Amino acid sequence: MMWKDKYKIGVELIDEQHEELFRRVSEFTKIIRSEEDWNSRIDKVKETMDFMKDYVIDHFNEEEAYQAKINYPEIEIHKKAHASFKEGVDNYIKIFEEEGFNEDRIQEFGGKLMTWLIMHVGNMDQKIGEYVKSKGGQI
Amino acid sequence: MKVEYVNSFYKAAKDVFQLMVDIDPQRGDLKLIENISNDKDANVELGVIGDLKGTILFSFPKNMTLEMVKILSGMEMDKIDNFASSALGEMANIIGGNALTLLAKHHYTCDIVPPQIFIGEYKPHPIDSDKALLLPLLTPIGEFDITILLKENK
Fold first, then answer.
1. pLDDT confidence band for B138 (50 / 70 / 90)
2. Which of B90, B95, B112 has the highest number of chain A CBs within 10 A, making it the mutation to test binding with A?
3. CATH code (residue A107)
4. What residue stretches are annotated with the Hemerythrin-like domain (chain A) (predicted)?
């Protein structure tokens, strides 16, 4: 999973966090796709998931705070997308708590997470950058 | 079925493919088929509810599915496992969501039912026998189909 310059929105703090998210999700994908025995990878999977869950929430909060600061007109739509993603992650966490860290379920979660992140950063977040540019890049 | 339905799904698929896998799908010839079915290897079914009601089916050949997931993940894929099918389902879900946003501009307010993924042939539902529109989309990594069966529910 490659970070591409076209994903940059031109706001340094957000771009840095997005790049870090891509790095983390990419690392997570490599771990779950590795051919080593599942049991030997499971601790790393749990550790990465814990980090990511916290990082994603912190990032969403900071991104929403930034949107509020610049009076971003689509903030409510964006918050809704974040909330729906968090709900999706929480549902998986609940499944993992109830069923254990089942490899098939983790693979399913990994495929969805990767696709969602590329689309959200590559599309929805770009609109924040476009708005900042439309205001002369001064906010 | 109206032309807006097909155009909305075509535009949404084109935009999502360009953004996510750097591929620009081209339209093939639209076909009217008797029932919603497809013999391609991976099928994603999306239910639509609201002002329009029906089913959208995305159908991909195996090699194209693996190539798309390889482009997304940067990793080799040799089978359509849970990771690949889930990524494919999410991509179809995003295309469907964006198509409904475009349809909202034509005053249709709809929602999507979460995707169901079928690995292997998608067989027609024995009771439903409505006509559907099949839109083939051509790409350098293969040809996939979007089959649209929508009825007005207003």
1. very high
2. B90
3. 1.20.120.50
4. 10-129
Q: What is the pLDDT of residue B128?
A: 62
Instruction: Flag whether residue B19 sits within 8 Å of chain A, measured between CB atoms.
Output: yes
Number of domains chain A is built from? 1
Domain extent for A15: 8-134
* Domain-located, residue A38: yes
Give the minimum alpha-carbon distance from A36 to chain B in angstroms, rounded to a whole number.
16
| B62-98 as b/e: b if 16+ CB within 10 A | bebbbbbbbbbbeeebeebbbbbbbbbbbbbbbbbeb
Interface contact A11, partner B, CB < 8 A: no
What is the value of pTM for the model shown?
0.91
Could A115 and B90 be called an inter-chain contact, meaning their C-beta atoms sit closer than 8 Å? yes
User: What's the complex ipTM?
Assistant: 0.89
Give the span between the Cα atoms of B80 and B66, in whole angstroms.
Answer: 7
Q: How far is B76 from chain A (nearest CA, A)?
A: 10
